[in-house]
Amino acid sequence: MSSLTILRSYAQKSNPDSLPSSVLLSHSDTSLTIFDAYPKSIFHFLILPRVKAPWTANELTGLSSVFKCDKARAKELLLSLKDEADSARKTIQDEMQKRYGFKWDIWIGFHAIPSMEHLHLHVISNDLCSPRMKLKKHYNSFHPKLGFFLHLNDVLSWFDAEPSYFETAIQLKKAKYEPLLKEPLSCWRCGRDIANMPTLKSHLQVEWDDEARKEKARVERKRKREEDANRIDTQNTLIGPPTKK
Amino acid sequence: MSSLTILRSYAQKSNPDSLPSSVLLSHSDTSLTIFDAYPKSIFHFLILPRVKAPWTANELTGLSSVFKCDKARAKELLLSLKDEADSARKTIQDEMQKRYGFKWDIWIGFHAIPSMEHLHLHVISNDLCSPRMKLKKHYNSFHPKLGFFLHLNDVLSWFDAEPSYFETAIQLKKAKYEPLLKEPLSCWRCGRDIANMPTLKSHLQVEWDDEARKEKARVERKRKREEDANRIDTQNTLIGPPTKK
DNA sequence: TATTCCGATAGTGAC
DNA sequence: GTCACTATCGGAATGAG
After folding, report:
1. Which nucleotide is closest, CA of B148 to its C1'?
2. Is the whole model's pTM more than 0.85, yes or no?
């Protein structure tokens, strides 16, 4: 199977459960949620629309081809992907809590110019810490403010925009988006320019470690507060009436 | 010692014999012949003018600064370098015969834009086979027909050219010569374009092996002819008068 | 913007 | 056009049977 069309081959399966569990996380009637084979963050899933009536494989090649179909149908499709993405987000959040003791943000969106020939919606945790995050284009393709990563909610807002804006937006012109991948590296959190990928990766790790530390402290303070409140409640229950706040 | 000025430091020695034998091959009153520290061929020497009255270190920075001095003095300097280069050439030819049993061509010339700050004349065998021959710019800087390598005899001919030609030539404009180093690779022997350095290096090795084979065969034929002639002479001496040719 | 392999290209730092 | 080091950039192939 060529790497260019592997997602399509998944999306064409009439029985998604035949996919190995290392590939498939879950599926619905209209979509699959798979593990990105080269995760660019600790958590990274792809939501694929299934090739199923009324959709053909060609119509599902990418965002542009989807938009070229009936507008209402396109919106319906994206909303169903959104449902699946929200579900994947919850799965990720549970895992975050279980494995790391805290939760951090998750981004949901498309690449303006994908390489693989089947629409895929990224659901990715915002750490961007992964051994597979190797190249400038990898990073820039997920930078949340650069423009190449199209947040799903932004894409959905196109449906409510002026028709002329909609028509321009859905063209996803290469000339507009391709150069973004070559932009200088900058930390999406602190905005600082960073000279190269090794330095950026260290920086992202520090930023995430920092967030982890702060979040865990916050969780711990909350736990303490609740414990205190509980002890006071218990004391109050045992020795007197509740104190006024 | 910075690599930019190391040649100058050699050229300034009042006693060149204090240089290690791994650096110095020989010297005259006006010049040094040193081993190129990064030989781009099997044989590769540099001839340096010594910093010695009437020459100052600044005047000897490069070809341009030399030409800016008195024209007659400049010519005299180049002719003295030529003498040393011819001497180095003979040394190389002896070594070729001793080590390889045949001789091949030697080029004598300057780089139009040198990186090191002291005039140095290259004396280099035309094999261009060396582990130090690594980059396109290395090769192109010695390509005998590309223009970046200025054969000493060509430079000397500038003195006899129209004054306007002379004045233009001695400027050695970067804009003219720099782009030559990025020209596509082509074999200086057979003219074929060659895609990359690894391929070129293999090709140069084959070309040189080929020349070696042919030259050795030629040498052997000559030896045989002389042996035959000698045997016939000897026979003639022993058994009769020389035969007419 | 799938990865991987190979090589060319570009910037730096050397002292 | 000094080198050596690091990283980036640029093309081509990639599968399957």
Report:
1. D1
2. yes
